[in-house]
């Protein structure tokens, strides 16, 4: 139950009010002055308590008990049935004799005000490639730069970093092992995307992983000829997600959510430079130490099956 922030009485306060009258013998007027309400209000809550007990002190719905002009249930069912036949609001109103607004309210109550609600939901398609390097997810997250902590941390809106600009976190995550590699660039252009791709390929190669395919959205930097040529030079097959379907690149999207929650917004950084300096440390923890539920609560590096000597050499 939602109580208005300026409400004079809550259910607990109403119980105290009733107790003053029935147990302590206060008059309605004296109780009203003590609780700063009208005597009629005191009389109403006392009457409801005598009739219903403590449940009578709870808020009730404001809907009237009798609604002579309420749309009959038969018409409600008919409107819903016609909507399932893909009829428009105007056509349903003309057929049933109801106004378009009434038809709209009925459909909204039933979650059918949009025709898209009638389409069956596509079942989730979960997949996982067999070997590390079979598919690399790429994506970009735009982050605001700042010179000092903003109102999110300080609560003071007068302190801001207007004009500080933006920075772009380029993300790569391996589909099988979920090993991630990120870099911060000043833009999301094709040159930055290519530089991040080449750096990611070198990083995964240092772990013994050869990248064979990449999956990206349809952003201009990934659709450019320069990026296509870079993939061809690296011997990588480039795939695109379905338009307007971010879940196709869901692992990159999920990694970005985790990064924002555990890195970007997890601490009160003094400025954007300090936040950027913390990214490699967080990424190392993500790849080498953080447990992943989808990996049987093991870190991503465990999927590679590296020997102890190689693990010690790579773990810096």
TrEMBL record:
<dbReference type="GO" id="GO:0015074">
    <property type="term" value="P:DNA integration"/>
</dbReference>
<dbReference type="InterPro" id="IPR024967">
    <property type="entry name" value="DNA-bd_IS481-type"/>
</dbReference>
<dbReference type="GO" id="GO:0003676">
    <property type="term" value="F:nucleic acid binding"/>
</dbReference>
<dbReference type="Pfam" id="PF13683">
    <property type="entry name" value="rve_3"/>
</dbReference>
<dbReference type="InterPro" id="IPR009057">
    <property type="entry name" value="Homeodomain-like_sf"/>
</dbReference>
<feature type="domain" description="Integrase catalytic">
    <location>
        <begin position="128"/>
        <end position="307"/>
    </location>
</feature>
<dbReference type="InterPro" id="IPR036388">
    <property type="entry name" value="WH-like_DNA-bd_sf"/>
</dbReference>
<dbReference type="InterPro" id="IPR047656">
    <property type="entry name" value="IS481-like_transpos"/>
</dbReference>
<dbReference type="InterPro" id="IPR036397">
    <property type="entry name" value="RNaseH_sf"/>
</dbReference>
<protein>
    <submittedName>
        <fullName>IS481 family transposase</fullName>
    </submittedName>
</protein>
<dbReference type="InterPro" id="IPR012337">
    <property type="entry name" value="RNaseH-like_sf"/>
</dbReference>
<dbReference type="Pfam" id="PF13011">
    <property type="entry name" value="LZ_Tnp_IS481"/>
</dbReference>
<dbReference type="InterPro" id="IPR001584">
    <property type="entry name" value="Integrase_cat-core"/>
</dbReference>
């Amino acid at each position: 139950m939602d109580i208005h922030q300026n409400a004079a009485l809550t259910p607990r306060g109403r119980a105290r009010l009733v107790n003053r009258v029935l147990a302590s013998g206060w008059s309605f007027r004296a109780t009203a002055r003590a609780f700063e309400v009208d005597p009629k209000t005191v009389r109403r809550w006392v009457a409801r308590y005598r009739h219903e007990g403590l449940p009578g002190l709870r808020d009730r719905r404001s809907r009237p008990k009798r609604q002579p002009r309420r749309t009959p249930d038969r018409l409600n069912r008919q409107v819903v049935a016609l909507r399932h036949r893909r009829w428009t609001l105007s056509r349903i109103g003309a057929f049933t004799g109801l106004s378009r607004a009434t038809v709209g309210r009925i459909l909204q109550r039933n979650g059918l005000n949009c025709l898209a609600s009638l389409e069956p939901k596509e079942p989730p398609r979960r997949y996982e490639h067999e070997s590390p390097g079979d598919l690399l997810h790429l994506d970009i997250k735009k982050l605001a730069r700042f010179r000092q902590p903003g109102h999110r941390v300080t609560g003071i809106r007068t302190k801001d970093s207007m004009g500080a600009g933006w920075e772009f976190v380029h993300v790569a995550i391996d589909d099988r092992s979920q090993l991630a590699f990120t870099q911060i660039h000043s833009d999301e252009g094709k040159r930055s995307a290519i530089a991040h791709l080449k750096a990611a390929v070198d990083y995964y190669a240092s772990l013994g992983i050869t990248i064979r395919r990449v999956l990206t959205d349809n952003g201009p930097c990934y659709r450019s000829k320069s990026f296509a040529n870079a993939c061809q030079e690296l011997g990588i097959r480039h795939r695109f997600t379905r338009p307007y379907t971010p879940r196709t690149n869901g692992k990159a999207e999920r990694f970005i959510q985790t990064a924002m929650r555990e890195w970007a917004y997890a601490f009160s950084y003094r400025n954007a430079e300090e936040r950027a300096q913390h990214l490699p440390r967080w990424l190392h923890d993500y790849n080498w130490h953080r447990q992943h539920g989808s990996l049987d609560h093991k870190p991503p590096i465990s999927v590679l099956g590296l020997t102890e000597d190689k693990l010690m050499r790579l773990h810096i």
